[in-house]
Amino acid sequence: MKLNKLILTNFIAYPERVEIPFRELLETHRLLLIYGPTGAGKSTIMEGILYALFGYDQRRNLRSPISEYSPDQPASLVLEFEIGGQKYRVERSWHAHKGRLKREHRWYQWNKETWEPFDQRQLTRLFPLMSDFDLFRQVVLIPQGEYARFLKSEPRKRYETLVKLLPVGWAEHFVDILRQKVAELDAKRHQKVIKLQSLLDKEDLHDPVDAKPIVSALKKEIQSLLKKQNVLRETVHKKEKEREKLDEIYIQLQRIEEVFRTLINALEAFRKVEQRAEEIEAIRREIQRIEEFRALFQELFQKSETLKDRIHTNEQELKRLKDKLRKVKKP
Predict the structure, then answer these.
(1) Alpha-carbon distance 153 to 162, whole Å?
(2) pLDDT at 150 over 70
(3) CA-CA distance, 180 to 173, in Å (whole number)?
(4) 10 Å Cβ neighbour count for 100?
(5) Which pLDDT tens digit goes with each residue over 103-149?
(6) How far apart are CA 77 and CA 7, in angstroms?
(7) Mean pLDDT across the stretch 23-38?
(8) 217 vs 227: CA distance, rounded Å
(9) Contacts for 243 with CB less than 8 Å, ≥ 6 apart
(10) pLDDT at position 8
(11) Cβ-count burial of 92 within 10 angstroms (0-12 exposed, 13-18 middle, 19+ buried)?
């Protein structure tokens, strides 16, 4: 399954229309990470996908998806996705009517140029996870805190989950058939042994000469059955080994989790560096303004010193002129 687009309107944490173009984002980025502070609406995106595909989210199945910010307005969502190269679209809406929550939904399939109505039940044959909400949440949209629980769960439970998820059902069926064949061969061998013992116990076969051909034939048949039984046992053992390989998938999932956690930490560190860079840039601009102010202050200070010198010179010149004037006035 590939998600192409999700449109949320008045849905839970988004009172306004929000469109998330998954396909366009992934065309330019190999990895799409949804992150943000608590209450930013990350979980609402995941809930939107669950509501679109299943009509509800187990965490909110008793609550209305209509945003609390606009409770009188209807809520709606649109999800476009692909399965096996075929495009599908589901539209859902909710509105309050006389104190009750009314729901509507429509499914469409893309047919070259337009969206045509589609029976959603056909998707369960193409994508079995569409028929199992719990399994979908367990392997596709894993709730917060439950990913590690899946990796650390009992091997049998993990095996049952992966059997549903991966195309290994035929192997399980084949192992069951082989076990049945081994049981049948054991039963036949036991019957042959009983038959041989019965023949040996008969009076007319007490003579070793008369019993030898029958005993020899029965021994050959028993040996043949034992060989077949050993071959089947080896085959069952090989299939059991193949089943053990599923545990390697668990290890790979755990490694993916570690890589994912490392990526998140790196992104968080990058955000901090980015914020620090913004702070440094702000400080640099402030220092630049201070430097400009200092240069302007120095320029004004120099001008003031020049003016002071000129005032002092003028005062000296004025004093000299006054003295000269006094001398001129004397008789």
Answers:
(1) 12
(2) no
(3) 11
(4) 7
(5) 888 999 998 889 999 887 777 776 766 777 776 766 566 655 555 56
(6) 5
(7) 82
(8) 15
(9) 159, 171, 175
(10) 94
(11) buried
Nearest CA-CA partner of 22 in 12, 13, 33 = 33
State the CB neighbour count (10 A cutoff) for residue 12: 24
**What kind and span of H or E run contains 7?**
strand 2-9
Length of the chain: 331
Contacts (Cβ under 8 Å, ≥6 apart) of 246: 158, 159, 162, 166, 168
Q: Domain 2-142's class?
A: alpha beta
Q: Rounded to whole angstroms, how far apart are CA atoms 178 and 173?
A: 9
Domain boundaries, the chain: 2-142, 162-274
> In this structure, what token pair is assigned to residue 186?
């054991």
Question: Cβ–Cβ contacts within 10 Å for residue 68, how many?
Answer: 11
**Closest listed residue to residue 83, CA positions, set 166, 163, 3, 167:** 3
* Res 62 pLDDT > 60: no
Whole-structure pTM value: 0.47
Estimate the crossing angle of helix 155-165 against helix 208-329, to 10 degrees.
90
How many whole angstroms separate alpha carbon 107 and alpha carbon 264? 36
φ and ψ at residue 119, rounded to 5 degrees: -85, 110
CA distances from 84 to 1, 25, 127, 212, 316 (A): 7, 20, 9, 66, 100
List the one residue out of 4, 168, 167 whose CA is nearest residue 85: 4
Query: Shortest CA distance to 263 belongs to which of 33, 94, 36?
Result: 33
| Averaged pLDDT score across all residues of the chain | 78
E runs forming strands in 29-127: 75-83, 86-97, 100-111, 114-117
